[in-house]
Amino acid sequence: MKECKHLPKCEFVLRYVAQVKPHWDDFVSLYCRGDFQDVCKRLEQYKEHGSQPDSNLMPTGRRVPGIVDSE
């Protein structure tokens, strides 16, 4: 599958995935480069609103846990 065109500037990836490596690498593998792109809530927001969603919105549609967000 083709990589999501928003990956290089995705605020979730830039802010949180590197911070919680290697635990959240699967988000990138599955949602940004894999078969879960069609269920990515961040991509859905891009399409609906034409702008980047909040950085703490995870691809699953849940918010980044407070313990991670406060670091």
What does the model show?
It is a single chain. This protein is mainly alpha-helical and 71 residues long. The chain has one domain (7-69). 39% of the residues lie in helices and 0% in strands. It contains four helices and no strands. The chain is globular, with a radius of gyration of 11 Å. The model has no long low-confidence stretch (mean pLDDT 90).
Strand and helix layout:
Elements: H1 11-17, H2 25-32, H3 41-49, H4 66-69
Mean of pLDDT: 90
- Helical residue percent band: 25-40%
Please trace the helix and strand order, writing H or E for each element.
HHHH
Low-confidence stretches: none
Structural shape: globular
Count of extended strands? 0
Distance between the termini: 33 Å
Q: Given the helix and strand composition, which structural class is it? A: mainly alpha
Into how many domains do the coordinates divide? 1
Major β-sheet profile: none
Rg for CA atoms: 11 Å
Q: Which percent range describes the beta-strand content?
A: under 5%
DSSP helical segment count = 4
Record keyword descriptors for this entry.
single chain, 71 residues, mainly alpha, globular
Q: What's a concise summary of this model?
A:
The protein is mostly helical.
